Amino acid sequence: MSLHEVASDLTKSTVIGDLPNDILHRILEKLPIKDTVVTSILSKQWLHVWSTLPHFVFDHLFFDHVGASAASIIRKILMQHTESIQGFHLISKSHTLLQSDVDQFIMFVSNHGVEKFTLDMDTDWKYLLPHSIFTCSTLTDLKLSRCMLKLPVPDAQFPNLVSLQLKLFSIERPVGSNNATLILPMLETLELMCCFNVHSVNLVCPKLVNLSILTSYTITFQCFDVNSLFGRIKHELALVPATDTLDVSLNLQSLKISDLKINVKCFSSLFYLLRNCGMLVELDLDLLEKVDATRNHSSELFYYLKSHEQVISEALQTIRKVTLRKFQGTAIEMYLVEVILVNSPNLKRMSLKKLEEN
Q1: Cis before 152 (ω within 30)
Q2: How many CA atoms lie within 13 Å of 309's alpha carbon, on the beta-carbon side?
Q3: Is 23 helix (H, G, I), strand (E, B) or coil?
Q4: What's the order of all strands across the beta sheet hosting 147-150?
Q5: Residues of the chain where predicted confidence (pLDDT) is lower than 50
Q6: Which ranges carry the F-box domain (predicted)?
Q7: What is the pLDDT of residues 202-221, one digit of tens each?
Q8: What's the sign of the alpha-carbon dihedral 91, 94, 95, 100?
Q9: Global pTM?
């Protein structure tokens, strides 16, 4: 419904209850769920509006308010619902929820056409995802935090999933078992944040164009059979550079490196990676570590940058925009700026951002 149509309905309505259900749904979704529930006792009409609400958010405010009754209240709310559920978001710090409770919630929303599902289990136990989640063919957006999954799962796939975000997520598989395959034919965006044992999965995702990897662990290019995967990715964020060889040229158009250590090993990996990105136009470097205080490290890096001019020149040929974050103006940083300016014939813009500007 357009803004003009909404305004027209508002002028015709004398009370809020006369508004169309989709407008009432939007209003209720802006309220804390504890207040939304109260509207169901106003009238039969409001009960119908409540029972057809398409999105549910059970967040920290909800759990702080209901305490130990959280599981039973969520169960009652879901049982009263009569229509499909487009979005279900469970963000829990509650120690009262059991594995069986969350399993029931997932089963219910899976059977009611859920499209967007968020699960963040910040509790003293790690939630084990049931294999039944793979039966939910309607999912388009999935965000999982502080959960775990046991593999292999036969025929594991999300046929309509477009966006997948995994945070503090771990994967377990039997000792000696082969890597499992997860089929994601429609996936376009994948975000991995501090995940553990992700290399246990081979992803089949022919439409993937956006990949974000942010981790405190070592990332290697073998992860997710990435040699073939990277060939299709256009935008990459937060990749920790590694030194593994790449068998294909990459189609990256933009690349952000988070927490880039200023040392020879990381810069060598960076320029090697850039040489495989013949279409790259935007480079964003988030500088992590200053080495000027360590004379030996600084000398090594100065020598590397001076002695590998050919490699660096090949790496920077297509770059048009460079951003250096957490910039402090140290001697090695200033020399890096000089190297980039000299070896980037197509450079149009360079931004230097201090730590407080990030």
Answers
A1: yes
A2: 6
A3: helix
A4: 127-128, 147-150, 170-172
A5: 1-4, 6-14, 41-43, 216-232, 236-245, 292-293
A6: 13-61
A7: 777 778 777 777 654 333 33
A8: negative
A9: 0.65
